[in-house]
Amino acid sequence: MVGPAYDFLVNPLGAVRITFEEAIASGSDLASFDGKDWGAVDLFRHFLVDQGGLSQVPVLAPSTVRWAQPNTLVRFRGMIQDMLGNELYVGAYKVPGLNAWAEVSSEAFKNKLMDWAYQQRQKRRRLDHESTDCEEMPVFDTEVQGSPNTKRMRADEQSSCAYQSPVPEAPRSSISLVPNLDGNLPHCLVKIYDCPESDLKLNDVFEFVGVLSCAPELQVDNEDLDFSNGFSEDPMPHLPASKVPYLHCIIHRKLAAKDFLQNNPIIELKPDWIKEIRNGLLRHLTSVFGNDDLAAHFMLLHLLSRVHARIDTVAVGKLSLNLTCFSKEIMSVFGNQLTTSIRNLLPFSCCIPLTVDYLNAASLAPRKDYDTNRLVTGVLQLAEGSHVIFDETKLEAGTLNSVGVENARLLKNLVELQQVEYDFKYYKMEMAADVQLLVLSEGKSNILPADVIVPFRPSEVNHSEAIVAEAAEAWRWYLATVRLLPHSIESEMQKVVENDLVAARQADRSLNPQDFSRWLTMGRLMSLSFGETSLSLEHWQMIKELERLRKQRLK
After folding, report:
1. Digit-coded pLDDT (tens) for 385-434
2. Phi and psi (nearest 5°) for 105?
3. Residue 34 to residue 462: CA distance in whole angstroms
4. Which residues of 503-531 are buried (b: 16+ CB within 10 A; e: fewer)?
5. Do residues 163 and 204 touch, judged by C-beta distance below 8 A?
6. Please, is 132 exposed, middle or buried when counting C-beta atoms within 10 Å of its C-beta (0-12, 13-18, 19+)?
């Protein structure tokens, strides 16, 4: 049996072309392709998903981008940083009544366009005598011949810009696409076909599989283009191909924390197994915290927290944590161990050292640049599930300028409301966030009002030991899985909880609804930590005991 005349990895466009030719040969009318493709996407999905071909597709990364070949199949993982708008796209078409001899061949058209582009470059070189050195990188064109979905997709084409590291490094105040592209955070311009906009949202993390574009000869500057006919293509997608690769997406999927596990263990949600993994992780956290068992328990609940509902401005499920009694000396030991541990457990994390100078200069909020029509990312444009450590041990007395005051307000809103305010110059827009926030400070933070305040009480310094790979994989799976479990409170437990809340209120009039809401959140997280989907009396008693010990320390 003769195999296919194409290779999905090396010659994906061959698969697109052959499926199109077969559809035409079968008598299908071009008009029937409006709103759907001719089987190319199903063909690729069968290869990538059903036949397990996804693992064979090379990943576009800083270490591999130099060797990636144009017109080959690649995949790119990144967070959607900006939506660059729509492009008019001409799909499969035929002019009624046009005879074959009068058609202009695509090869002749391409040659003419290449000649024209060459003339434009030569003209520019004559006008510009000064040359600048640049890093040698592959140059990819914005168009690709034989796109994987050559059809009219909602009469346009949507472009998304994603960068691979969803969490920016703390010292950098902002990361812009162009100019001054940060080389440590690889960007990729992804062109999406026939995808509802609701499927793609800012700050979501996706894996895109598609065709890497080519033909650098066709890359021209917008100022050289003549739009005298009154129609113009959105200039936003024309980013420097020497720095930003272009990917024409065939298949994409939203990623969760489990998708980043290198070796995803197959573990059933059996209570005994979950309890064993939980105990191992808790022992590890206790060791990291210098045998502070209370801090380790609250840290475990914190790592399992997420926003699972929103009621008005209240983000239900969040559990930000403020560990106090962290001096600079303690931070240099336990803070570094904790940062390393979190980095080894979670897919997205970063540490931001808060100082007066940083607050006065940092660009925390994303902002719209109308000159380039780009959304310039800020430090707080984070992927869902990111973990952020705010180190306040370096914060000293000083005066905040207007930028510092605004940044302090942004941080406060993030901690209290799980929202980040995007600056569109003429108006502000609140964007929902879902990040885990840990504050390390000497006293109670005045900038970041966390949900739980726990004084840190280490008894000894435990030198960090190498973690067994199997244990680390199990802990990562545990944190990524149990936090997504559904949860409910049975009617009998509801009565128990209500009675306990009434009794607590009578004993301490300073308690408020926020405290009660936090207790319920902690009860939910305690149940999930054991792999249970409903609150039990045992878990509720454990929460009450943790609160008693915490308040005892606060005194």
Report:
1. 999 999 999 998 889 999 999 999 999 999 999 999 999 988 999 999 99
2. -65, 150
3. 65
4. eeeeeeeeeeeebbebbbbbbbbbbbbeb
5. no
6. exposed
How far is Cα 440 from Cα 326, in angstroms, rounded to an integer?
A: 6
**Which residues make beta-bridge pairs with 321?**
438, 452
- Say if CB 453 and CB 295 are below 8 A apart: no
Helix runs in 171-219, H state only? none
Q: What's at 394, amino acid-wise?
A: K
SS (H, E, C) 73-123: EEEEEEEEEEEEEEECCCCCCCCCCCCHHHCCCHHHHHHHHHHHHHHHHHH
Closest CA to 342 of 400, 270, 285: 285
Give the whole-number percent of the chain exceeding pLDDT 90: 46
- Give the separation between CA 319 and CA 396, rounded to whole angstroms: 27
The pLDDT tens digits for 91-133 are 565 575 544 544 445 454 445 445 545 555 565 555 544 433 3
Do 185 and 168 form a contact (C-beta atoms < 8 A)? yes
pLDDT of residue 161: 63
Kindly list the distances between the CA atom of residue 79 and the CA atoms of 162, 207, 445, 467, 508, in Å, as whole numbers in the listed order.
5, 9, 30, 29, 45
Q: Which residue in this structure is represented by tokens 């994409």?
A: 252
**Close Cβ partners of 345 (under 8 Å, ≥ 6 residues apart):** 303, 472, 475, 476, 479
476 and 267 Cβ atoms separated by less than 8 Å = no
Preceding amide of 179 cis, omega within 30? yes
Please tell me the pTM assigned to this model: 0.79
d(CA 125, CA 447): 53
Cα 374–377–380 angle (5° rounding)? 155
**Rounded to whole angstroms, what are the CA distances from 38 to 22, 28, 406, 426, 438?**
9, 9, 52, 44, 50
| Domains defined along the chain, listed by start | 12-93+135-255 (2.40.50.140), 285-467 (3.40.50.300)
Residue in 456, 441, 463, 547 with CA at minimum distance from that of residue 504: 547
